[in-house]
Structures are given as C-alpha cells and as structure tokens.
C-alpha cells in the first residue's frame, strides 16, 4: 500500500509542476527584455496576507490563465517584506528598508500608489516598453485577470 501511494505521488508531481505559472526575477527581467521584449506582470504579496494565499491557490487552478501568462508574459512574484536584495528596475536601484524585525522593499513603495501602507496583493502590469497598463490593488479573480490581459494585449 505504501508503495502504491508513493508511486501515485511521483506520477502526479509533473502534473502539478507543469501547471504552475513560470516566475522570473527582476534581475532576469532586464536580460529577457533585451532578448525578447514581452509585457510583464508583477504580483506583489506578503507571506502573512490571507487574501494573497487564497488568490495564489485560485490562480494556479486556472490552466488557461497559466498557459496565457507562461506563453505571453514575464511574471514576477515579489514578496514585499522578505525580499532583501538590491533590485534594479527601469534604470533605478531599490533597496530593502529594515524596520526592527520586519521591513519593506523600496520597490514596493515606488510601485504602490499608497506610499504609507501598500495594499496586498498588488498587481502591476506593464507592456513590453515598460509602460504601466494596469494597476490593481487587492484580489484579482482569475477570470477578471484573464479578461483584462486578453482585452489589453489581444492574445
């Protein structure tokens, strides 16, 4: 019985792995844009945000959305309070700002319209020329996100 469970788990791993959104980093983004410019989706979240966890689970269930994003966009999943490395984005450098036991990344504050307390999750969608196309605070339902991407970019 134990062998059967292990076998079923092992054959199901590729199914779950391939149904995930492929993520990039900001350091990858600069190189990717030189080689093959694409629109970029920046998803900003925190580890403590319950809505972020629900949203992530729901988005990863939508195979059509995953395929749309993986084939046409660069996707950056950015943890606002735990990402501590220096990030270069659109010709500027951004650092982590510690505040006692926690902190926030300067890039989150730069991208957020609410500079005092960013709203999570936060979605920033930019076109291949790095112009802002969509700014969305709070949960983005998979159907609404898919509709927005199709409407704006026509994929």
Your description of this structure?
The protein is of the alpha+beta class. The chain contains six helices and eight strands. It has helices at 2-17, 26-35, 50-59, 63-72, 106-111, 142-153; strands spanning 40-45, 74-79, 87-89, 92-94, 96-99, 102-105, 122-126, 132-137. The chain has a four-stranded mixed beta sheet with strand order 2-1-7-8, with helices on both faces. Strands 3-4 form a two-stranded antiparallel ribbon. It has a two-stranded antiparallel ribbon with strand order 5-6. β7 and β8 (132-137) form a beta hairpin. The relative contact order is 0.18.
Order of helices and strands: HHEHHEEEEEHEEH
Helical segment count: 6
Task: Outline the low-pLDDT stretches.
Answer: 12-17
Radius of gyration: 17 Å
Shape: globular
The proportion of residues in beta strands is 15-25%
Strand order of the largest sheet: 2-1-7-8
Backbone structural class: alpha+beta
What is the share of helical residues? 40-55%
Calculate the mean pLDDT score and round it.
Answer: 88
- From the N-terminal CA to the C-terminal CA, the straight-line distance is 46 Å
Q: Mind summarizing the main beta sheet?
A: 4 strands, mixed
Q: How many beta-strand segments?
A: 8
Summarize the structure.
About 40% of the residues lie in helices and about 25% in strands. It has 6 helices and 8 strands, in the order H-H-E-H-H-E-E-E-E-E-H-E-E-H. The strands form 3 sheets. The protein has a 4-stranded mixed sheet, with helices on both faces.
Entry keywords:
4-stranded mixed sheet, 155 residues, two-stranded antiparallel sheet, alpha+beta, 6 helices, 41% helix, globular
